[in-house]
Amino acid sequence: MELNRYIDHTLLSASATESDILRLCEEAIKYNFYSVCVNSCYVPIAKQALVRSGVKICTVVGFPLGAMSTEAKIFEAKNAIDQGATEIDMVMNIGRLKSKNHVAVLKDINAVKRAIGLTPLKVILEISELSKNEIVKACEICIDANADFVKTSTGFSKSGATLTAVKIMRKTVKDRLKVKASGGIRDAETALKYIEVGSDRIGASAGVSMMNNLVSKAS
Description:
Blueprint: E1 7-11, H1 18-31, E2 35-38, H2 43-49, E3 56-61, H3 70-83, E4 87-91, H4 94-98, H5 102-116, E5 121-124, H6 132-144, E6 149-151, H7 163-173, E7 178-182, H8 188-196, E8 201-204, H9 207-218
Parallel strand pairs: 1-2, 1-8, 2-3, 3-4, 4-5, 5-6, 6-7, 7-8
Helix pairs in contact: 3-5, 6-7
């Protein structure tokens, strides 16, 4: 297994500088990570830095709360794609889910998906805010809304991914959607455990140390 090809090399800190983003892109090229994941204002910089590489550009929408209007999410997603983003990670409207307004959650996700067409859409559930039953329901809504992935976490809430949540997500979506584990995954051993239980992608800011960790173990 090539762990590097599972990794969305991520930097979403509010204080990330342009030079930090360029370094992120350089690291992604060096280790051949699947993508970089950056805030949308940095998509043009990432596009320029990655132009001759095979590294994809992922950006976040409605981040990190998910509580903005559907129209704002659509604009943000389409604008990011116009500037070079190749994948969109949007935050589900968590409050609406917890209000059991499942129709509104479905419409929010589906409207973004229809607006971006074939561009892969990952929906962030923010599992730290949800019960097991709510995680299942969120996954079912994402299937009905034609999303491409369900994703555990923003990395900006109380906690990140858990193996239990990923198992629930995989069991619910089966092979209909992919699963991305993100938030708090800091070493190769942990990342590999998430892949074993059903993760198709790993969102992490520690990708470089993960790869170095693998090299040191092999030597």
